[in-house]
Amino acid sequence: MTATLEKVLDQTPAIETKDDRRTITKIVAGQSVTMTPEMADAFGRELDALKEKVIADLGERDATYIRRVIKAQRALEVGGRGLLFAGVLPPAWIAGTAMLAVSKILDNMEIGHNVMHGQYDWMGDPALTGRNFEWDSACPGDQWRHSHNYMHHTHTNIVGMDRDIGYGILRMSEDQRWKPYFLGNPVYAFLLMVLFQYGVALHELETERIRSGEISIADKKETLAGIWNKVKRQTLKDYVAFPLLAGPFAPWVFAGNMTANLVRNVWSYAIIFCGHFPDGTQEFSVEETENESRGMWYFRQILGSANLTGGKWFHLLSGNLSFQIEHHLFPDIPAFRHAEIAEEVQAICKRYGVPYNTGPLPKQFASVVRKIVKLALP
């Protein structure tokens, strides 16, 4: 367990003691929020201690949890696909589609996303090793590990470095220079929502750099090949192989698979956007994050994230990304543990005057939609 602790703590920057560290001040909901270097060091030590406490407690309970979720996901997928073979009967089609949609949500949110963060590497189970895991999504796992685990979680909400600010498609910050292209912000956002797995798949392609002429499509030949191979495999599985197995019931299986993918896409989009872009979340400049200590890194993660309130099943189906703040603080701790430490994180934030953004899904999503529409304009 000591090796595991060292591995996890290595994921975030060490606390610096340089004299040129910055005091950061942000305006959140009309209130000034300040973090000095000295405050940040103490803030970082408290959060590090909380992290160490959780890691020291990892064990059989965590292993049992993830294995039960995987077992449930597989049962839902098998049951859902089986019912779709009888999809000519409306109740069977509805039940099969719902079960398949939930299985895909679990596979992406609570299993794939979290396993690929290395949350269960300490178990030594090859099937749960983050660097090898592949999920039921058009996005290749190795590309996700770079664009999400490294680029996004390292440079969270740093304009010009975190490509998750708008996914190379949208304008989601006033610090992003406006262009006439962004008049289509609401349309792009809707298309990204319904086609979310493909939007995520194209993330590593860096389309905004291609549009600007900074790089050419030829420079992304290897990336494009990886995307094509994964999209082709997913398409053949959902829209060719399973419908053909259904024989005369192929149209119902095809429609069920498409609907399940749509439900998963919309749900994933809503959870992820509500964790990153609702009212109160902050962006940072490159200059603000120079010589950043671990405490300041924690400060940025909290101000750049937002939580969602809900019950046990809501948190499970969100992959516990409803605790986006805790996830950004400790991305490689098993996600179901985030609910257990949320109150302690909130208490630490309160002591240091750091806002803790949380609210119900409808409220957070409404503020995201307002932001998308507002930022379509100069």
Automatic annotation (TrEMBL):
Pfam families: FA_desaturase (PF00487)
TM region positions: 181-200
UniProt KW keywords: Membrane, Transmembrane, Transmembrane helix
Every Fatty acid desaturase domain range: 92-358
Protein's name according to its UniProt entry: Acyl-CoA desaturase
Provenance organism: Mycolicibacterium komossense
